[in-house]
What we know:
With 221 residues, the protein is α/β, with parallel strands linked by helices. The chain is built from 8 helices and 8 strands, in the order βαβαβαβαββαβαβαα.
Amino acid sequence: xxxxxxxxxxxxxxxxxxxxLKKIGKFPDSWVHLDIMDGSFVPVxxxxxxxxxxxxxxxxxxxxxxxxxxxxxxxxxLFASAGADYITFHIESTNSxxxxxxxxxxxxxxxxxxxxxxxxxxxxxxxxxxxxxxxxMSVEPGASGQTFVESTFDRxxxxxxxxxxxxxxxxxSVDGGINEQIAEDVxxxxxxILVMGSYFFGTPFEEVENFINGLRNKNTP
Length: 221
């Protein structure tokens, strides 16, 4: 199976982030998912661009900055200069998504849009040709360790069908509650990227490594 893992460092041990980044680096094609929360768009505050800048030198993996903030346009220059490769903002956080998309593109970064489980996917359908990434939240943004929302499967399939019909160069990422019980089903539904937090950092690494490598080898001739 072909897929990318994107461990979220929000679930990592912040006392040894460089070691946690080395775990991610054992999968050379993996991404680092960076959850930026402002205490306003969601009730939790996490970290900002200084931390991203400080860990950038410890990882050669792709950095996807997931902005769960109000006024995301204020954050784009900060995270662009901190070392982001992708910047993903929430459709619910702006009335001018195309302006934000163009602003991100003007920094020569890849552009992503995310949506909450309750937001209709039809709301972003017209934006898909302009995006590099669509991040489908399979839990409510703001806290780790939540249970995967089952309706996410239908949402992934809906976007995959549009992607194939319109021949879009779009990555489908899924974030929230992904573990060894549902990862395969998420990939089969059409996900390209699995954002893993609690499972990746809360499970003995040898088990995680064996599971991911085994899944990648599944159905492979």
